[in-house]
Write a structure and sequence with these properties.
heterodimer; A: Ubiquitin-like (UB roll); 1 helix; 9% helix; globular; B: alpha/beta; FAD/NAD(P)-binding domain; 6-stranded mixed sheet; 5-stranded parallel sheet
Chain lengths: 81, 469
């Protein structure tokens, strides 16, 4: 049985299996937009492997974190846009 | 003891690390992602990795390689690499030999609407699926070029997505040639491909593009996946509001609309040669933009690859710059960075590089591997010819289509510039956090521009990291 952990995506608690990335947790929370571009457009991950930098979110008050490179930890606070 | 550092823990890197460690070297294997495996053997939350990958992972565990994940190489100086840890902080790792196995990334060609949320790469969709992204009931359009399209469509369908279509830009003739060639060089891959083709999936109906008007269809049925595989078709535009809702497809003559909640589109792979370029290794053109065997001159190229000799040694300037390129004994390269050729070739190249770096290149084992590599390279050539890009794709971006996604620079602003450097100075194109990884290969294809020179740090690094060092 896979262990479950709880993270917060834009203050909404989401229960995710252990070992999923932050990007997957954001999608599980029902969000599709991760960040706003310099001209204000909505964006979401493109490469899934850490080169396009479109998946940047705020994690535990740290801005510009790569959602597809980081694994969820219990109690993590994720903020999109 | 020889200290060997391997950069990139994909198939090539793992094979190189195993062979080198088994030959008695002290090996450190670095990767920026949280798990080893790279793109093809990516860690999946349901632990479904291929059998071959499992064998190599076990071997890696046994040989005592120091595996350091979530550590990204940002610079190389003399005989050491600088790595940035995920938690912050910079570390310097000294080496006697360096094996570069940094792999490849996807080629994204800009088309109107490609910046909408839920428009992603083909490998990108695969990676997010394996990371745990829910795909159930999403209507998916897969587009672009290459054998990866079909594999990804099959795994998305297995995860519960509805496949609207798989739009492959290359022609039926090329695909038939590719199928025959695969049967000859890599029959196991052909069996795998047939498995995907015949997979029972939820696919859109009806299955012939000529019958649809301009109405977006939305009915799905259970059928074999090949029913929605459309050669000679490519994505022209994606439309939507807060995310993609529909796409316009074309075959050059006709255009039609299909519904989509998720678009996975990429035009094959480009070697990730940034670190090799920084190390001063010789690069060469990776693949022609469109087929030269049609009697046409091969105009335009996509990406660079690292030039290697028969022992996977990189070429460098041994003495003064300008004294000519020669194979150097310090740098080795293996896998997709030496030219796109697939997992099997990457493993063989990795094994050769690992043996050669540990000084075991004269044995019969190395000779056997070199012969095997020759066979696998034939498949690589076939792959690059069959999925060469149509010139039509150069017309994809409109003037208001964004090309540089980091700095939101449009194609209209860029086409009046003369080269990558002037584009950078006048429009900020390629100056964002991706450092031109997405836009520069697209611009190399669209406008025949040379890629920009590489500078450290190779990935965005916090300034505090350098100050505290």
């Amino acid at each position: 049985m896979m262990k479950k952990i709880t993270v917060k995506v834009n203050d909404k608690p989401v229960v995710v299996p252990e070992g999923v990335t932050v990007a997957a947790a954001v999608y599980m929370a029902g969000e599709t937009a991760f960040r706003k571009s310099v001209s204000g457009q909505l964006r979401s991950p493109v490469c899934g492997m850490g080169i396009c930098y479109e998946c940047r979110v705020q994690i535990d008050n740290q801005p510009h974190q790569l959602a597809c490179h980081q694994l969820c930890r219990e109690g993590m606070e994720i903020r999109t846009l | 003891m020889t200290r060997i550092v391997v950069v990139g823990a994909g198939p090539a890197g793992i094979a190189a690390a195993c062979r080198a460690a088994e030959s008695g070297a002290m090996v450190t294997l670095l990767d920026g992602e949280p798990y080893p495996g790279g793109g093809t053997w990516r860690h999946s939350i349901d632990y479904s990795v291929p059998r071959k990958a499992k064998r190599w992972f076990n071997r890696l565990d046994k040989v005592g390689v120091s595996l350091r994940t979530s550590e990204t190489v940002v610079d190389i100086t003399g005989c050491s690499v600088q790595v940035q840890r995920e938690q912050g902080g910079l570390d310097s790792i000294a080496f006697d030999k360096l094996i570069l196995a940094t792999g490849a990334h996807e080629l994204f060609l800009p088309f109107p609407g490609w910046t909408l949320p839920n428009v992603m790469g083909v490998g990108g969709a695969q990676a997010l699926l394996k990371a745990g992204m829910p795909m159930k009931r999403l209507r998916v359009v897969v587009g672009g070029s290459g054998p990866l399209l079909f594999a990804v469509a099959a795994s998305l369908a297995k995860a519960g997505a509805k496949i609207v279509c798989v739009a492959e830009q290359t022609s039926r003739v090329q695909l038939a040639k590719f199928a025959l060639g695969t049967l000859r060089y890599q029959p196991a891959r052909m069996v795998q491909g047939m498995g995907y083709m015949l997979q029972n999936s939820k696919v859109a109906r009806p299955s012939w593009p000529c019958f649809h008007g301009l109405e977006a269809r939305a009915t799905f049925r259970n059928s074999r996946l090949w029913r929605v595989y459309w050669p000679n078709t490519w994505l022209k535009e994606a439309r939507g509001d807060s995310q993609v809702r529909e796409v316009i497809l074309t075959n050059g003559k006709r255009e039609w609309i299909e519904p989509a909640d998720l678009v996975a589109c990429a035009y094959g792979l480009v070697p990730s040669v940034e670190l090799a370029a920084l190390a001063g290794c010789k690069l060469s053109v990776a693949r022609p933009a469109w087929p030269c065997f049609h009697g046409l001159e091969a105009r335009g190229t996509i990406g660079n690859r690292v030039v290697v000799d028969h022992l996977q040694r990189c070429h460098g300037h041994p003495g003064r710059v300008g004294t000519g390129w020669k194979p150097v004994s310090r740098f080795f390269a293996a896998g997709e960075i030496t030219g796109i050729g697939g997992t099997d070739l990457a493993i063989t190249e990795g094994e050769i590089a690992g043996l050669a770096a540990a000084g075991k290149e004269s044995g019969t084992r190395a000779a056997k591997l070199i012969a095997r590599r020759e066979r696998q390279q034939k498949f690589a050539r076939l792959l690059n010819q069959s999925f060469a890009l149509k010139p039509h794709l150069k017309q994809l971006p409109a003037d208001d289509t964004i090309v540089c996604r980091c700095e939101d620079v449009t194609f209209g602003e860029l086409k009046n510039q003369t080269d990558q450097r002037s584009a950078k100075l006048y429009t900020r194109c390629g100056m964002g956090p991706c450092q031109g990884r997405v836009c520069s290969s697209a611009l190399q294809y669209l406008l025949d521009w040379e890629p920009n020179k590489v500078r450290p740090p190779l990935f965005p690094t916090k300034i505090g990291v350098f100050i505290s060092k």
